[in-house]
């Protein structure tokens, strides 16, 4: 039997600098820090995008051999125009044009697309750790 009552709880991102990453998500997408008890083992920050979406930023385990992100690679994904088919998190904003202008003013490299409908716009870019992000001009989902 499939699970019932499933909903997205949070997305986790590992980082060598969780404070830098938290600042980015706060300034660019409006995430707010929420209570996160110290576990005494590694640094972590919980953030929320009101009303319910959570992001868990966790200090990178120095023992792992995984690359930090596209910035530590020479692969083509390091170009934001390649994110649309790759791994990314997507957000919708109601102020798309001014949002894109703001991230460009902050020096963030972007790739923009307009869908064939001529209405839906999307911008692709990376966070400071090289995680792919997409922001679109869609309406917010209707609450049930």
From TrEMBL:
All copies of the VOC domain together span 7-138
| CDD domains in alphabetical order | VOC_like
Query: What PROSITE patterns does this protein map onto?
Result: VOC (PS51819)
* One Pfam family of this chain: Glyoxalase
Name of the molecule in the record: VOC domain-containing protein
Annotated organism of origin: Protea cynaroides
- Specify the taxonomic lineage: Eukaryota, Viridiplantae, Streptophyta, Embryophyta, Tracheophyta
């Amino acid at each position: 039997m499939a699970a019932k009552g499933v909903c997205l709880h949070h997305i986790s991102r590992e980082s060598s600098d969780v404070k830098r990453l938290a600042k980015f998500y706060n300034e660019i997408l409006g995430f707010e820090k929420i209570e996160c008890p110290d576990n005494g083992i590694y640094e972590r920050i919980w953030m929320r995008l009101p009303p319910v979406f959570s992001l868990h930023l966790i200090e990178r385990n120095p023992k792992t051999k995984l690359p930090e992100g596209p910035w530590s690679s020479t692969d083509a994904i390091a170009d934001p125009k390649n994110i649309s088919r790759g791994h990314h998190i997507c957000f919708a904003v109601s102020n798309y044009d001014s949002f894109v202008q703001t991230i460009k003013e902050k020096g963030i490299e972007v790739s923009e697309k307009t869908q064939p409908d001529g209405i839906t716009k999307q911008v692709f870019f990376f966070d400071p750790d090289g995680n792919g992000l997409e922001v679109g001009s869609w309406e917010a989902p209707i609450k049930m």
